[in-house]
Amino acid sequence: MSLMKYFYYLFLFTIIQNGEIFAQKQLKDLSKPNILYILTDDQGYHDVSYYGTKDIRTPNIDKIATSGMRFDNFYANSTVCSPTRAAILTGRYQDRVGVPGVIRTYEEDNWGYLDPKATLLPTELKRVGYNTAIIGKWHLGLESPNIPTDRGFDFFHGWLGDMMDDYWKHRRHDINYMRLNDKIIDPKGHATDLFTNWSVDYIKNQAKSEQPFFLYLAYNAPHFPVQPPKEWLNKVLKREKNIDSTRAKLVAFIEHMDQGIGKVISALKETGEYENTIIVFTSDNGGHLPSKANNGPLRDGKQSMYEGGLKVPTCISWPGKIKPGTISTNNWMTMDIYPTLLEIAGTVPKDEIEGQSLLNELNGTKFNVDSERSYYFVRREGGTWYGGQPIYAIRKGEWKLLQNSPYQQYELYNLSVDPLEQNNLIEQEPEKYKELNSILMKHIQVGGRVPWQKSH
After folding, report:
1. Other CB atoms closer than 10 Å to residue 384's CB: what's the count?
2. Torsion angle, CA of 27/195/79/322, rounded to 10 degrees?
3. Lower Cβ count inside 10 Å, N or C end of the chain?
4. How does pLDDT run across 361-379, given as a tens digit for each residue?
5. 375-447 fold
6. 20-363 topology per CATH
7. How far is CA 326 from CA 67, 299, 434, 437, in A?
């Protein structure tokens, strides 16, 4: 073969090879979208600047909202961490998968056990070709069969337990819960930065794959202890001259996390994956008031069944699919994201679930909101305030029945005229109380069939 022919054939081979790579890339771009699910911990309803909160700046979270849809009446499934996370990953009410309360290290203070038979979101997505990863906080079990790689995640790089006692030391009760899959690791650095950097690395690696990915990025921040890097706190103190010192730390903590979210989204853009990625942003419950969280005008905060404990900042973007700058005022719950993502991925839930897809709302399709739907909330806890008993709330239409201690009488509010829950109508509306209580009891009976402790 002459040298000229050799180079000619080499040229043709290169053209064909590059063409195949281009075609494969095009195939990936036109197939199922990647999913980036960002969950923050205890972020208040108005602790985002897209609501006009004057002392905080969250440009990257704001960008998700302005480039997609903002949800103004989005409810977390519970007032605390583990139950809402169970709802995220199962599409079910948390007590129906064995997690009515917080999963903790010590048995005497543990109030949940994730049902090993429940089908989790990553398992469903793997069935239709997704690579699946969790980076950050798991908080749904500390041992097999309830660790991430047992429950459908191909890859886990993060924190197995509940809260961190220190964001630099990464310990809880002097136990190291940092993991790379099932291996104990001891990385250096602020946990928020670690989770951000690991997510960037994952996205860059997945850009080489022909399969779509599901990345569940669950930050521990801004859960207490509120520990922003010093430079971020100094920036807030310099900018906000009269800010309360406790509030300043929380603002800096959230702004530091927001920058991390920006880096993750930049990685999507740099790898060409952004246009084919749906981004979900939400929090697991209302903001922690002792940390000076801002839940807007809503009553109370984390741990409470009032609106401030349940409503969370939520937005979803999907380039070319969701009209930018749209706002939903309909009621939705954390567990509704599950069937939504499965519908987008072209599949349906294997199990019976309570979550309802909101894809029609994302698409701008006209649909009738289910006026008969009831929104049910439960949390079980220990201590003298709860005594190991659960508390409940239920919303149907504009009416809401709730309790914040199992030893207190229920309260009844009409949210259409009393959104701040100031006027308890339990005495004036006995028939409405009876109606909601009847629905609530049926929910309790169904949830009561599922064990929430590991059998020995």
Report:
1. 7
2. -30
3. C
4. 999 886 677 888 999 999 9
5. Arylsulfatase, C-terminal domain (3.30.1120)
6. Alkaline Phosphatase, subunit A (3.40.720)
7. 8, 26, 38, 35
